[in-house]
Design brief:
Length: about 475
């Protein structure tokens, strides 16, 4: 069989992700803070881009990406000409130097120097770093009478304590790390467990609570016996079984359980508070008359434009060599596509937000009980975009509404049928379950089957396992875990 070369024509279709499309998709799914970081990075790396103080109004509707102009308009070089300050003794003779020196102070700014409260610096700018649990324990260690070996072991122990105050490394691991004997590590551990806060360096919840009990001077008490031998029954609130085993009355067990409930299961939590993260909404929804108006939040986003110097260089007004021209041309294309992608991102967010407001109008009017079932396909069909685009838009984007601040994904819920033939959103059902549990008798909490019956009375027919799933999603315990006798 002879081998030969042939030419054949073949027509195929394939999806090609251009760099510009990849950039647009990347910007679309970024949060507001991440977008600002990307823009700042581009401003540092691309000399063609520059930030302007002018706010260019963006019309969100009726504009397609293909209809965008290639480049934003640059300001004319002749506008707002300011004479250069040369600093050659100009105006120096007009200064009353004697009055200036009399009023000049070398001291720092004091509180009495501010006439109005608005002139005072923000207290947030004066705050220092808060003390962590490790800092607090290390400070106590420096005040303790430890020798060099004990100090090394204590440092290793403190370094393995988590933010809740629990020791996450075993004694054997600490022994190997410090090249110390097990008895020596155990002795230092007992000393560290006497530090503040009470219960720190416990290896389990049981040990954490026992440390607190012993520091209270309640050794050999009923409380210590319950924690030592009957903590499983205590967790399930089987108080009669505890009373029978220990040979005490039920009232004594209840009093002991009440005291145990006042102990701190997370002793390190006061020192582990994280900094508050403020959320800046991407969209504002205002009610004007009987209508809801969607407004994009452009505050804080840099206003970009093409530098006029490089624009003139490409137009031929300024002579540049070929290599520099190619470099400017490449950076110019990147800058234009970045501006286009940001504008397209803002328009897409606006369209999605407007569609959500249209579908969930009853929620804005009457509250969460009227939240409707909504899926990505509904919004995608309404604004004629793909579901994947809607998914990217609703990721890490927030909407400030008259009902509060919500993530865009909050408005998308599965539907649950009612006995009347209507459909309610799953989020509304969760809220109803939370209200039922909040109004129950803590001594006789509702079982999941009872919650099913109560929901059915309100026209919501769901299975018991669905109630259990929603209850766990809300972080609510079972009826046994919610039961309180005091």
């Amino acid at each position: 069989m002879a081998l030969e070369l042939r030419q054949q024509l073949k027509m195929t279709q394939q999806l090609v992700m251009t760099p510009q499309l990849q950039q647009a998709i990347k910007l679309l799914q970024l949060s507001r803070m991440e977008l600002v970081e990307v823009i700042q990075q581009e401003l540092e790396e691309n000399p063609v881009l520059e930030e302007t103080a002018e706010v260019e109004p963006l019309e969100p509707t009726g504009v397609d990406a293909e209809n965008l102009e290639g480049e934003p308009q640059a300001e004319s070089a002749g506008d707002n000409q300011i004479e250069e300050v040369r600093g050659e003794d100009e105006g120096f003779s007009d200064i009353d130097w004697q009055s200036y020196l009399e009023g000049y102070s070398l001291g720092g700014t004091v509180a009495s120097a501010y006439e109005e409260d608005d002139e005072r610096p923000s207290f947030e700018n004066l705050l220092t770093r808060s003390t962590t649990l490790v800092d607090h324990l290390m400070w106590q260690m420096t005040l303790s009478h430890f020798d060099e070996d004990q100090r090394r072991i204590a440092t290793e122990l403190i370094g393995n304590i988590d933010e809740d105050g629990y020791l996450k490394a075993s004694v054997d691991e600490i022994s190997v790390a410090c090249e110390a004997s097990l008895p020596a590590v155990e002795a230092v551990l007992v000393m560290v467990q006497e530090f503040d806060p009470p219960g720190v360096a416990g290896r389990s919840l049981q040990e954490c609570l026992l440390i607190q009990v012993r520091l209270l001077g309640m050794q050999d008490s009923l409380v210590e016996k319950i924690l030592t031998d009957h903590i499983a029954d205590l967790e399930t609130r089987r108080y009669p079984a505890i009373a029978k085993t220990l040979g005490v009355s039920l009232d004594e067990v209840i009093v002991a359980a009440k005291l145990i409930s006042g102990l701190d299961p997370r002793p390190g939590s006061p020192y582990g508070a994280e900094d508050v993260h403020y959320i800046t909404p991407d969209i504002f929804v205002h009610k004007v008359g009987s209508e809801y108006v969607v407004v994009l939040n452009d505050e804080g986003l840099p206003n970009l434009r093409i530098n006029s110097f490089y624009r003139s260089a490409l137009s031929g007004a300024t002579e540049v060599d070929q290599e520099a021209g190619e470099y400017i041309q490449e950076k110019m294309r990147g800058a234009v596509w970045l501006i286009k992608s940001i504008h397209q991102r803002q328009r897409t967010i606006y369209k999605v937000a407007k569609s959500i407001v249209k579908f969930q109008r009853d929620f804005f009017e009457h509250g969460i009980e009227h939240l409707k079932p909504l899926v990505l396909r509904d919004v995608a069909g309404d604004i004629e975009m793909h579901e994947s685009t809607i998914s990217r838009v609703t990721t890490n984007k927030y909407m400030q509404t008259p009902r509060g601040l919500f993530e865009l994904k909050y408005f998308f819920n599965s539907g649950i049928s009612t006995t009347g033939g209507d459909v309610v959103a799953s989020e509304s059902v969760k809220t109803r379950i939370k209200e039922i549990i909040a109004s129950e008798n803590i001594k006789k909490p509702y079982s999941d089957q009872k919650i099913v019956a109560l929901l059915r009375q309100n026209g919501i027919d769901i299975a018991r396992r669905t109630v259990t799933k929603y209850r766990e999603m809300l972080g609510l315990g079972s009826s046994t875990e919610r039961k309180r006798l005091f």
